[in-house]
Amino acid sequence: MTGAPEGSGFLAVDSGGSGVRAVLGTAERGPLARHASDEPVRTGERGIDPEDLMARLVPLVRALTAEAGPVPLTTVVVGAAGLASLGDGLRAELPGALAREWGVRRVALAADAVTAYVGALGPRPGAVIAGGTGLIAVGTDLTGWRLADGWGHLLGDCGGGAWIGRAGLEGALRAHDGRADGSARLLACAEEVFGPVAGLPGALYPRPDRTAVLASFAPRVAACADEDPVAAGILRAAARHMADSAAAVCPSGGEPCVAVTGGLFRLGDPLLGPVDEELARRLPRARRVPAEGDPLHGAVRIAAELGTGSLTLPGDERMLSVTIRSGD
């Protein structure tokens, strides 16, 4: 790839369940403006809807250019949740739509796990645990990508926010029933948040946002962990799951870096302490480092490198696909 012309601009996008965030910038000046839309992109029969994404991006770019001034938009990077399994429509239609709308010449479509990785570690070999409502681990040796978990709350996401919240509510219900391994503290917390726990199944099961509701109880589990062995055991089990996933994707040679990223880790020391211990046990050769940034930061990094022709990350049809129009 040749280098980008002077003044060429990039748009970096993070599209997920909470909406769309975007940054406008140039390779020479870096990020210039940032805006967000709270409405997530729709999914349909072909997966993530490219027309709906464009409908979100047009007003975002209008707002960004109003703040930053006119920028010739030549490069776009979209990091999208669900891209690996739901991205066929985006891959087929979005590069052409961006070219027609703004004359974009370079487009990279990345799974949100990839942008989380690049935001946390940049172009270094290692593994990243991305934790929020769910949980996924992504790793690379810079020749390919590996994923572990991320299977959703019914089949996996082990150690994620919904997993921790569900385990905490199970401990509460065990105490309510008088079964072993119950927690009176978690029972009190559950009734403070949800009311009498006898009505919890009927209130929770029909809700379409039940994973988010489960995850909302995770901070209560963390708050009880210092004095409650059941809560502490839940966080220790979550840490083991995370370390198992990280070990499954981490490169085997050298001293790879390992980082954690995502809102789940705002639970703080009650979770981070066990995570550090489990990672040291499972990956003794790895070097634990703090995350440098979030998934939007990762999309910005990819956009800056793609715009200057210096992108070195491994391509993958499902995880990171790049489209470049002829002449570049």
Question: End-to-end span in angstroms?
Answer: 6 Å
Mean pLDDT: 90
Number of helices: 12
| General form | globular
What is the chain-wise order of helices and strands? Answer: EEEEEHEHHEHEEEHHHHHHEHEHE
Radius of gyration: 21 Å
Main beta sheet, described?
A: 6 strands, mixed
Please estimate the helix content.
Answer: 40-55%
Strand order of the largest sheet: 3-2-1-6-7-13
Strand tally, please? 13
* Structural class estimated from helices and strands: alpha/beta
Query: How big a fraction of the residues is strand?
Result: 15-25%
Low-pLDDT residue spans: 1-6
What report would you give on this structure?
Helices cover 43% and strands 22% of the residues. With 328 residues, it is of the alpha/beta class. Helix 5 packs across helix 6. It is globular. 48% of the residues are buried. Strands 3-2-1-6-7-13 form a 6-stranded mixed β-sheet, with helices on both faces. The protein has 12 helices and 13 strands.
